[in-house]
Amino acid sequence: MQAKTPEQSKTILTDVVLPGETNALNSLFGGELLARMDRAASISASRHCRQIVVTASVNHVAFTRSVPLGSVVTVEAKVSRAFKTSMEVFIDVWIEDRTSGEKLKANEGIYTFVAVDETGKPVTVPEVVPETELEKQRFEAALRRKQLSLVLAGKMKPNEATELKALFV
């Protein structure tokens, strides 16, 4: 199985925020944004492994900026790291100013997907080879995030989380 770069899984979804998707403050509902992020991340994970993928977890979402009615929203997703059957997908959300065209980062998220066959059984996925500095940073941090998640879920003993321990020793 040939390794792939994050760029090979890059998925960009661009859409406009419509009135039926907003709350009382005329901002995009958080759930609407999460759904868009999930779709982009799903396509990205599928592009990476060329398999059926299912969302395993939403590991992190940061709503740092509201997304106003009428905004052009761009959701960009890339696989940041692959493990045996799972992939971490990092998602950046941008809003575009209608008058200046300037893009501002509004949100980000990290989702985990598992590749499965037609029966739902997990299958192996290709490795990720990061190229840019940002891709390398996200790749390195992914193992720490995975270990933290496993420790918190009781699926890994804290003393086995070598990457996490290295932060404190």
Task: Using brief descriptors, characterize the structure shown.
alpha+beta, five-stranded antiparallel beta sheet, globular, about 170 residues
| Main sheet summary | 5 strands, antiparallel
First CA to last CA: what distance? 36 Å
How many distinct helices?
Answer: 3
How many beta-strand elements? 5
Radius of gyration based on Cα positions: 17 Å
Topology as H/E string? Answer: EHEEEEHH
Specify the helix fraction band: 25-40%
The total number of structural domains is: 1
- Beta-strand content: 25-35%
Strand-pairing-aware structural class? alpha+beta
CATH class: Alpha Beta
CATH homology group: Hotdog Thioesterase
Give structural notes.
- The chain has 169 residues and is of the alpha+beta class.
- It has a single domain (6-130), classed as Hotdog Thioesterase (Thiol Ester Dehydrase, Chain A, Roll), CATH 3.10.129.
- Helices cover 28% and strands 32% of the residues.
- The chain has helices at residues 30-49, 133-152, 162-168; strands at residues 11-16, 52-63, 72-82, 86-96, 103-116.
- Strands 1-3-4-5-2 form a 5-stranded antiparallel beta sheet.
- Strand 3 and strand 4 form a beta hairpin.
- The longest helix has 20 residues, at 30-49.
- The protein is globular, with a radius of gyration of 17 Å.
- The model has no long low-confidence stretch (mean pLDDT 95).
